[in-house]
Amino acid sequence: MLVHTSSDRALATQQWLLSTLDEEGRSRSLTEWVEHRMALLPLGTLFSAIRIPGRLVHVLADPTEPADADAFLSDALDGGPVICDPNAIRYYALVPASTPEKWREVAVGWRSLGVELLGRGTVMGVPRMDVVEFDPRTYGSYWSVSMSSAAMLCEPRDVARLIAAASRQLAVEADA
After folding, report:
1. Alpha carbon distance 169, 113 (integer Å)
2. Is 48 exposed, middle or buried (0-12, 13-18, 19+ CB in 10 A)?
3. Contact at 8 Å (CB) between 168 and 109?
4. HSE of 114 in the Cβ direction (CA atoms, 13 Å)?
5. pLDDT for 24
6. What is the pLDDT confidence band of residue 1, given thresholds at 50, 70 and 90?
7. Pair 144, 76: CB distance under 8 Å
8. Domain coordinates of the chain in residue numbers?
9. Which residues of 4-24 are buried (b: 16+ CB within 10 A; e: fewer)?
10. Residue 6: is its pLDDT beyond 70?
11. Lowest mean pLDDT across 79-83, 156-160, 171-175
């Protein structure tokens, strides 16, 4: 049986993420990861993202610290990768590239919640693979839930369930 170490998986995942770019773009992104801990990658070819306002996650997770929300998302999205932007208090669930097209009608109802599908024609800041914890000194984006392997993405149905549960909870709280 062939066993891959976590560093091998991280390198393979990094290469998969970079495969969205041409050779010059890959070189630029590697430099950005070294210098800034984040690189801009295009969405819509290998993966897309669902941007979720932090209030939707926090109404369900009731976190006292960022790690609580991270653990909640890992459970709720079955370990699917999520990037957190603590400056804007947003989460980005990485989903298959086809999600914005397939879920377009459903996403219309999400707009009032501040949820947005991001795909082709959009770039997103993606943290370096080892940036996996909130850093209160920089407030830089980090992997709230690490990408476990190349091409292992969130299941859109799981993200939709999370958004629906948060919407219901917000409605309950508004009625109270």
Report:
1. 12
2. buried
3. no
4. 14
5. 97
6. low
7. no
8. 6-175
9. eeeeebbeebbebbbebbeee
10. yes
11. 171-175
DSSP string, the chain: -----HHHHHHHHHHHHHTTS-HHHHHHHHHHHHHHSEEEEE-SSSEEEEEEEHHHHHHHH--SSHHHHHHHHHHHTTT--EEEETTTTEEEEEEETTHHHHTHHHHHHHGGGT-EEE-TT-EEEEE-TT--S--TTT---EEEE---STT----HHHHHHHHHHHHHHHHHHHH-
Instruction: Say what the pTM is.
Output: 0.95
Please classify residue 125 by burial: count the beta carbons closer than 10 Å to its beta carbon, then call 0-12 exposed, 13-18 middle and 19+ buried.
middle
